[in-house]
Known about the structure:
CATH superfamily of the largest domain: Medium-chain alcohol dehydrogenases, catalytic domain
Radius of gyration: 21 Å
Bound molecules: NADP nicotinamide-adenine-dinucleotide phosphate
Number of helices: 9
CATH architecture of the largest domain: Alpha-Beta Complex
CATH topology of the largest domain: Quinone Oxidoreductase, Chain A, domain 1
Number of strands: 18
CATH class of the largest domain: Alpha Beta
Oligomer: single chain
Distance between the termini: 12 Å
Amino acid sequence: MNEFQISKSNYSNCRIIDVDLTNSTLADDEVLVKVDKFALTANNITYAVVGEQIGYWQFFPPHASAGQTSDDIAGWGILPVWGFADVIESNNAEVPVGERLFGYFPPASHLLMKPTKVSPTAWIDGSSHRAALPVGYNIYRKVESAATSEKAFEDDRMLLYPLHLTSFALYDFFKSNDWFGATQVVMLSASSKTSTGLAYGISNDSSAPSQVALTSTRNKEMVKGLGAYDRTLSYDQISEIDASKPTLIVDMSGNGSVLNDLHRHLGDNMRFCSNVGVTHWKETNSGPDFIKDRSEFFFAPSQLQKRIKEWGMQGFEEKSGEYLKYSFEKSREWLKMTDIDGLQGMSDIFEDVCEGKIAPESGLIIRMP
Ligand SMILES: NC(=O)c1ccc[n+]([C@@H]2O[C@H](COP(=O)([O-])OP(=O)(O)OC[C@H]3O[C@@H](n4cnc5c(N)ncnc54)[C@H](OP(=O)(O)O)[C@@H]3O)[C@@H](O)[C@H]2O)c1
């Protein structure tokens, strides 16, 4: 088996490690899955950026290859990715060989897992090192139990589902808080898929506030072309935003100086700032005008868990399903899937992903041999 590891202190420094599994046998209830394909976006880089705070490094501890010691893997970690895998060996009576799964995997050829709470549609990886991590990341959905027509949308699903489910969680959170009194929403890193998923939901709701997109100069035309935002500005055009309107900021960028300038420009009309992402992960130092007491970190898994509890799984799936159907349909109008050949292909483009050099309309899909 092989796996893709990155240096925790320099993300674009990556390596592919060969791990010898030939002498290992499955423990009781364990299964071995072969990873088939997965998506790669800025979200995965954010898993590294906040890896220590939120525990993302703990999902898939790195292995040492033959001849390596634990010292050789110190400082290295594995980025979780969303994708599909197939069970190829099973020591678990409830999980047969051939079962196909959608969920959180390492960028690796294989993964040892311990299915628990097996239901007709899903199960949870009960591996002890994952027990304390947010449950939403430990659920694996059986793919054959989904409608056959859904199989054709596997690429959309692994690329967009985790991001647009966050967009749905944001939409629901803002709407249930009356948009924090705002009449305009300003979205940062507006070209990201999480932002566009939210922009489609907002533009589809006639009672929602108007939307201003903030993006890099190079991505302005693409964002304009989406037709989802009412106005599109670049980061150096903050002064053109109407500061007389009560405003909700949705920040996917984490860019400290942009946030500082935007908070200063809006002053009292900065009603709420939702800190969602850190796509600009090298520029996070905020300045003196950042309004901390009206800013809040948003963690989608917590909001989603809360709603599943309140609405029940069926109610949740109905509401989120309707939202995602529309945001997926709109995204298909411009999204271009780009196939990447295995872990070596991922290694070749990984620095560009870290540096934000991938065109926003591109959807990177790593296909494993
Ligand atoms: N809090 C949560 O629960 C949660 C859940 C899901 C996603 N998120 C976060 O939302 C953010 C967006 O994720 P995504 O997967 O949707 O992104 P994506 O589609 O891959 O976004 C690409 C865009 O991000 C910006 N970007 C990416 N890397 C950059 C870099 N190194 N330097 C400068 N700009 C860069 C650029 O946008 P601009 O030019 O428009 O800035 C680029 O067009 C991530 O930080 C992700 O972790 C948070």
